[in-house]
Predict the structure.
Amino acid sequence: MTEAAIEKENKQIARQYKELLRISYQTLTDDDKKLIRKAFDTAVDAHKDQRRKSGEAYIFHPISVAKIVASEIGLDATSIAAALLHDVVEDTTYTLDNLRDEFGDTVARIVDGLTKISNLRKDKDVSLQAENFRKMLLTLNDDVRVIIIKIADRLHNMQTMDAMRPDKQIKIASETLYIYAPLAHRIGLYNIKTELEDLGLKYTEPETYTEILTKIRESKEDQDAYIKEFSKVITDSLDKEDLDYSIKGRPKSIYSINRKIKAQNISFDEIYDKFAIRIIYRSEPSQEKFLAWKIYSIVTDHFRPNPTRLRDWISSPKSTGYEALHITVMGPKGRWVEVQIRSERMNEIAEKGYAAHYKYKQGDDNKEERGFEEWVTRLQEALESPEINAVDFVEQFKLNLYSKEIFVFTPQGDLKSLPKGSTPLDFAFSIHTEIGIHTRGARVNNKLVPLSHELKSGDQVEIITSENAKPNINWLDYANTARARAKIKSSLKDEKKEIAEEGKAVLARKLKAQKIQFNEKSINELVVFFNLKTSLDLFYRVGIGKIDNQMLKEFASSRSNSLVSYFKSKMKRSPVSVDLNKEEITAKYDQLVFGKEEEKLEYKLSNCCNPIPGDTVFGFISVNDGIKVHKKDCPNALQLQSNYAYRIIQAKWIDSSQQDFKAVIKLQGIDNLGLVSEITKEISSNLHVNMKNLNFDSSDGVFSGRITLVVKNNNILNTIIQRLKKINGIDKVSRE
């Protein structure tokens, strides 16, 4: 780089630093500024020789992450310093001890948490991304700021991903949609969640993203005019009440519009609520609730509300701490409009999430803070279950991330928050594991209900327990929360182990009766004989009586005949070679090739999305079924590309039809029952030729027909003609 370019870059770095201090959400003291300055100087020095893929100095990345942390999320000086230093230990010669000496324990702990997340454990059996994600959540125990800075880091990476390879972009975008966007949602960072989702869509479905973005831009003028018209109607009434407020229109995110288009199978123009109107008012804390309902009353004086769409999150805030009043009203021109009513404090909590809770902390009785801490505690419990593998864990965790909430009461009148779709079992396990495990039944609003009963907001739930009750396998069909499912699985596993222990003793006795020694060799032979995977499977099946005396006798006799069976297996004939014509005739116009080398490999088309030639697809190397081919927009694609990136293989359709040509065959003969069936069977099953068209006509016992075929060459066509002539009743076969 020239001196002038270096000079220009240094000025830009200095400018970014000043902006970082200026945009901080928290008020920074002199000590805060000193801490940030020291972190900034350390990061500049540590990254001085590094550049990003786009060519710019690496230091711009930590500065950008720190800016997101400072303004969009609104964390404190400690977090800003940690964000500036987040890559220092991983990428440079600085050590954790250097940081601890310079910046103290808190900053060092946060940076250590962020470094741990980046250092993947190379384990072939476990999805690296899922294991990584689990590790990331474990750091919540140390400091929740680790996760929040990681989300900011991911946001900046998503904003600057253009210079990356397409396969890398898809992997990172899938992981973002699969893990980071739900996590941002759960922590209450709604703005960041929306941006992560939109950027995720930009890279996973670029055409869809561009199409919706263009349509939103085209309709912006119309939307602005509509918001103006809507606001004008209620402004006079709000002004009469001397309210200090502002009205803003907020377009729905591209991602949520796309989700709606897919879920409801409608077009962009058919979505009625493409935007929401937000009324933000200034208020003393004691007046907040009163004013929210006052504004609600004014809005509904002018516009008719949809009674089924009222959401009161002021009386019962979401567990993320979100508070607001949402109503859907019939606006001008007969359009439904969502109106969100929030005080300035509620708005900041909605936008800044966790950080805004500090600013508005009111003594110890802080609902939001407690709610968040409860969530972290529940999470820790789920994480500490050693049996659950990483991918299952991510799946379970996801269940509870995006879930809408319901609020139910205990018999004592305490309020409990549960995900929508929860059952009495979920409720029982949310109170205490012991209550869950010993659940015998449940009463909802004083009536006995089955354990599969879906709870609704406002229900009062009482759990009936019994010492003798214990989970059975059906409970997994009734439990929806990650906590309940994990505890049920763990309990069932323990029970299985007990049965297996009994089965082991039974098996030892039964083998002795058959004069077979109970040792590792015989156990391995039994596992193979019964097509099982582990000795535990074997003992368990003996324990429940699935493997009985008769089956063990068969095993004993097969053992004594093992020499005979050895020779039999050797003498088995090799499979008959396939019809050579099958290689020549292709029924498909397109072939799939895999990887950069465009190799032709064995594959199966997956049932979940049924790809057809021409679809954008990718290959997934499964454990038992070889390569499974999925569409890019398959419901399972995000999970596979995020959790199993190392098992994804590029795939594309190539044209293999250059030599195919159409040929028309004419047939004549004596009509008889089943003749058409015989002709089509001969063509399709024996020769695997592609039939394009069939036309048969019968008159007075004589039939004539035309068949259009797609074949590779003349030889094949002649073979078909010769075979068709041999069918009883056919007199003449010729090419048109």
